[in-house]
Structures are given as C-alpha cells and as structure tokens.
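Handout, section 3.2

Students often ask what a structure token actually looks like in practice. Rather than define it abstractly, here is a full record for Serine/threonine protein kinase. The first block is the sequence as you would receive it.
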Amino acid sequence: MTNNDFQQLLDQVDSVPASDIAARIESLLASHHDTLDHGQQVDLLYLEYLTRTSAGDAHVVDDLRRRHPSLETDIVRQIKVDTELSRWDDTSIAPQSIDSTESSSQQAGHYIGDYTVMEKIGEGAQAEVFRVVHPRLRCELALKVSKLQSEKAGRILDEGRLLVTVNDPGIARVIDAGIWDDRPFIVSELVRGTTLQKRVEQNSLTTQQLVQFVAEVSRTLGKLHDQGIVHCDIKPTNVLFDSQRQPKLIDFGMAVDHSTDGWDADSILRDSHAGGTLAYMAPELFVDSGESNGQSEDTSRSRGPANDVFSLGGLLYFALVGRHPYASKTSGEIIDAVASGDWDRQALHDSGAPLALQKACEQAMQLRPSERIESARRFADSLDGWLARTRRKNGRRIVLLAIPLIALLCVGWLVWPGQQSETHNAQPLLSLPSIEAVERFGHLDIKVWAEERPFELVNRVPVHSGEQIQVNAPLRANHHGELWLISSDGETNRLTEFEPRGESRWVHFPSDAEKGVPLVGPAGSEAVVWIESASPLSERDVQAMLGQPKSWPALGDATVFRLVDGQLRVEQDDRAFGQSSELESPDAVVQKHLRAVTKGLQSQGKHVEIVAFSHIAE
C-alpha cells in the first residue's frame, strides 16, 4: 500500500473510540491483508495500543500478543522505544527487569542496570554490545557488557578506566561504568556509521579520502601513545565513521599501558602470539619471532607503540590494495608469514597506488621495530605530506564558484545549464542499462564524480562540496522531461528540459555525458526532481508545487531515499534522534513535503521521481 493510501487508512480510525478500536483494526487488517506491508500492520496495531492505553486499558499488550504472535517482537519494540523517548515519565508501563538467569542476548525493551536495551549491535568472544537509552539524559549510547562473571571480566572495567582519561574526537567517549548481574559493563558514546572495511569493500572512498582517514587514525594513536596507551588491535573493522565522517577508533579490549612489558593471558588468541588480529599484527609479538629478529624473547613479546605502527601500515595497505597484507597466503602459511614479516609486497606494487604511499606502507611494516618509521605521529605526517602535494596539483584544475547559482535542496547548488562551460571533464559514463530495459518509469540515475572516478550515489553520501554530479534519466518515447532542484531556502529551479521524440532514450545533465557539475553552496539536504509527462506544465505552476516549508532539516549523512510516483523506497538509511523537542525525524519532515509535491504533480497527470540525499560542505 502506498504511503498516501495508508495515511488515509490511519485517518479513518484515528477517531474511533477505545471500545471499538480492536474490532475496527482487525477488520482493516483482514480486508487489506494483501496490500499492507509488515511495518504498516505494526503501525495499525500500535495505533490501537495508543488508543486503548489512553483509555486506561492495562491489558492491551497481552491482547495484542495473543492476537498477533508473529508481530509480537516489533509491536513490543515500538511500544518500548516510544515509551522511552516520548512518554519518559509515564509510569503506566512498569520497567521490565532482565532476569539474571536469562541468556545474555537481551531483547529490546529490557534493562541492563538503569539502561533500556534497544538492540544488540555487536558481539565478541568476551562481551556483547547493545544500543541503549540513558535513564535520564534521553539519549542513545553503546553499552558493552562482559559475558563472564569471573574476575577475568574485570578487563572491561580496565578498558573503561583507560578510555575515560582520553579526550580526543577520534575515540568514542566513555560515559559510565558499572556492574550488572556480577558482570562489568561500560557505557560510551554511540557511533553511528560503517567501518573502514565496509567502506573499502563498497569502493565508496577515493584514495585521498582513504589516506586522510588513515592519517587521522594515526594522529589519534599518537596522542594515545603519548599517554602510555597502546591499542594492540588496529584493523579496518575497528575504525568506524560517524555521521560527520570522523573516523573513530573503537574496541580497546586488548589495549595496555605502555609500561606493561608482558601481556595478559586473557588477550591471547593463540598459543603462539599475543592478543590482536593475525593479519595486522606486528611480527615481534610472536614467541618465535624474537630469534628471527635478533631480539630477546621478552623484548619481542613486549607490546609498545611500534606494534601499533606496524598495524597502521597494514591499515593503509588494506585501504590501497583492498585486502589484508597476507591474503595471498594459505591458512597453513599465514602464521609463519606473519612471524617473519613476509607480507605480500607484490600486491601493493601491483595496486597502482602512488609510490609515496607504497613507501609509507613499507616504512611502517618493517620486520624490525627499530627500522620502522619512528612513531604514529611521523606516519601521519608522511601521509599529510602526500595529501598536501596532491591537493596542490589538483588545485590547478579546480574552478572556484563564488556565486551560488542554483540551490540543490537545503544544501547546495548546481551550475546553471547555460554555464556548463565551467564544468569539469570527467571520464565517459559508466554503461547505463539499455533503454529497452527501463521502459517502466522510475530509474533516475545519479552519479558522483571524485578524482576522475564515478561512484553510485548510495555509496558516496554525504556528497562533499566540489564533487561533481551527473544526472541520467530514461525518457520514454513521446514524453516531455524536466529536471528540477529544490533548495532549503524555498528556491526552486529548473535545470533543464527535454523535448519529446519518437523513441525512448537516456537524457543527461549536464548534456555532455562526459562532464559533471560541481556541487557548491551550504550543507544540508539535496533533492533532484524528475518530471515526465505527455505535455509540460508552465514553469510557474511547477515552482508553486515544488515550494517547500520554511523548516527543511538536514537528512542523516548516510541517507538516500527515492519517491517514484509517491511510493517511498529508502535506499540507504542513517537513523538518528534529533533534539528532545522534535516530534518528527528530519527524514520524516523531508519525506512528508516531497510526498505532497508528488501528489500535486500527479493530480496534473505527471509522473514524478525524486531522489533526496545529504550534502556536507568541506
């Protein structure tokens, strides 16, 4: 069922009294069973819950569970989340404590200490991580709780004590610590985003961005080393990007103070090496590597800053090559290869990475610690130097746009079609589907160009100022096409239009399919509107329909959604809570307006497709 139709359905039952609401909801579920999706069914039952609880019905939850056991988990979750965030002081629903005999895999709505569990977001051999809500601050946090009830579990509290002394934007802040069911836990800032490994696998970052992020992680490590802290498990899955694209180093479960010469038995993953991840571990951490390195066993097994420097080299290697340094080795060969520092140098040389970056990898990943680059800070400096040189070279090709000409929805602006001579040459377009394969409306294609390379929009958001945009649309035979942009300040601008022809075809903005248009202007939300019809409306009529409300919030940094003739498809989601006074999420506000835009144009017989995404300024 489309969102507009479902909203009309909700309007029909909004004023139904509590005594009749259950019967009416069941009737709607039965009559629309084939058209309601899973989420819409849950929303209808949640409306029943609100209506009955407002009338003092204390048995509504049990009744909903009995009637719809298959939807129980989602219904209870919806109730708990809204209870925590919207009716915090309402005591009509008593907190449900977690029984100490339960499995450590807690369900949404339960409690660990005073924290309400929303969902599990991670798990390792020693601990689980949950997304939780703070009991008084009404904010979401990450809670890491040990699986163990023995004295060994105290390592989690050690991790908390270690991190609470660190104040750096590259590390998630520790908020609280405690004991629950004889298990220690720590509570820290919740980092929303994806890992470096995921970003590399998606091919969604340019070489410059990857190097910049590794440099930032290196600077953070340099500060940790200054305080005597060694991470001991640097790897792509332990680097997260938050909503502002700030890389954050996570999982200090194996971290030690630099003054510690040995290592804990708790952190040993194999008899032959100290704690860490094999593919990114320094050779000297292996028992046998002391002989091959010419060091004593005590020295070779000591964990210090040089170990992290080697892992940083492995991190850069992964960013450049796309796999870990020992990926060419068999499982039987890898342990000996790691112990002897025999990582795959040929793959690095064959990757096409700039020679300066290859050299940086080699300097950090030398077998002997004394022969490596001196520190994490020096490693960051070497990467910063390459970035500066590269930017100076690229600066000669950058066109500075001082006058905002067209706003790209709440965020940015594109150059007018008449000024396409100011656009940058890119590479030829990636092959688009044959026009015969896209006869059905709804295939608007947006590509982002950076460093002479195209990215699919969903793999590139948020789009940075200065990056180039290409818009490609399939225009059906005998139809007129228009491409519009909407800005947050209420401005609407038609970028270009296409006259009907007797055959279907791909059309492009800019018109030269080998060029892109730089995105400039303030940050926020972008919306590209494609209108296809047998005959065009006047420009004034379209502007009136596209006009947006004064309040136009920024979408989440990873958000991309598409509306095709009113049907919403979220292609990538970045869910986040706004300020406590907000009643609608930013995404909901934007979607609500764009649905209204679609409805107005559809009433004039037009097909409408809208793609909205986020944009950040440099």
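Discussion prompt for tutorial groups: Residues 434 and 519 are 28 Å apart (CA to CA). How would you have guessed this from the sequence alone?
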